[in-house]
Design brief:
43% strand; 23% helix; 2 domains; elongated; 18 strands; alpha+beta; single chain; four-stranded antiparallel beta sheet; 329 residues
Length: 329
């Protein structure tokens, strides 16, 4: 059983020395090394100033917790910093740093600009980039946690009373009426997560078809979210395509819950739409899409399935990734 819990938390650190002045945030960092103390100070500044989204992913098997991962995502990164003081107390490094933050939503792709024709501030740019990448990668993991449940928990399928018919050649047909639709809880989770990690909205010029285009976007009903890089959009594409397309699976089982027959059916409705040139990804989800129909299984009179009919006990329907379907007979 998997559970993904996402909550928006504005965490104020217990350290009373955190303060803001001249667009800088003064913060403390403690660590086993200078780099660790500096990174901890950066995290504190981001959490204090921008807030973080906490995502907790839990997995359990036979009532035993097998995974409990907590991710923190923020919409900012460290732009500039100044070391105010450094001391070593015991075996710990203590830093006081003034930090200036910038938002991750950099649709123009410019993270920083040089202040001199020749001087390259490598240390500053290294901190900028590492801070930026860490938050982006946590955003990737949050999206991946939601995609792990696709399509098995993304849809609701309901089967109705079956009908068995005999044709003119004395063969059987097992007909199973069904309905299928998006799971509203999954749509809500996907919606909230996408909103959290998205980079921005279209500018007036972009809406008019002028100016730089975002390489990826996700539209859920009337809400569109845009991304300044194609990493997350392509993760979504690969998570929903590449063999992960939804398939309706029917299993016939005996009283011991052992499966004796399994077959997949392709949904009759398109629940999403992907478009865009190679290297980009534009996804449109259709949360109101649904279907109803009948799934038919043909049972030849001399087949193995016909001969063991007396042992069949339950019909089980589910939605699984297409790549997990049994070979076509």
């Amino acid at each position: 059983m998997r559970l993904l819990l996402i909550a928006v938390c504005f965490i104020l650190t217990a350290c009373a020395s955190t303060s803001k002045s001249d667009n800088y945030i003064r913060t403390n960092g403690v660590g086993n090394t200078y780099e660790e103390a500096k990174n901890n100070a950066f995290k504190e500044a981001i959490e204090y100033h921008l807030g973080v989204v906490i995502a907790s992913e839990r997995e359990s098997h036979n009532n035993n917790l097998t995974k409990n991962e907590i991710l923190a995502y923020s919409s900012g990164y460290v732009d500039e910093y100044k070391i105010i003081s450094q001391q070593t107390i015991g075996n710990k490094v203590h830093l006081v740093i003034d930090v200036k933050l910038a938002l991750l939503r950099i649709s123009d792709r410019i993270m920083s600009k040089g202040k001199d024709n020749k001087y390259l501030d490598g240390s500053k740019h290294d901190s900028q980039y590492k801070s930026f990448i860490e938050n982006k990668q946590n955003g990737d993991k949050i999206i991946a946690s939601v995609l792990n449940d696709y399509p098995s928990r993304a849809f609701l399928i309901k089967q109705n009373k079956y009908i068995i018919k005999i044709d003119s050649n004395r063969n059987l047909t097992l007909s199973i009426p069904y309905t299928m639709e998006w799971n509203p809880n999954y749509i809500a989770s996907f919606h909230d997560t996408t909103k959290i990690v998205a980079d921005g909205k279209l500018s007036f010029l972009e809406k008019s078809g002028i100016g730089q285009k975002y390489p990826g976007a996700v539209t859920i009903e009337n809400d569109s979210y845009y991304f300044s890089d194609n990493i997350i959009p392509l993760k979504i594409v690969h998570g929903m395509l590449a063999g992960n397309e939804p398939a309706i699976n029917i299993k016939l089982k005996d009283s011991s819950n052992q499966s004796h027959y399994s077959k997949c059916f392709t949904p009759s409705v398109t629940y999403d739409n992907f478009r865009g040139p190679p290297g980009t990804a534009y996804l449109v989800l259709k949360p109101k899409a649904s279907e109803s129909g009948t799934l038919s299984i043909n049972i030849h009179r001399d087949s193995r399935l016909a001969n063991m009919m007396k042992n069949l006990f339950t019909i089980e329907s589910s939605v699984i990734p297409k790549k997990l379907c049994p070979p076509t007979e």
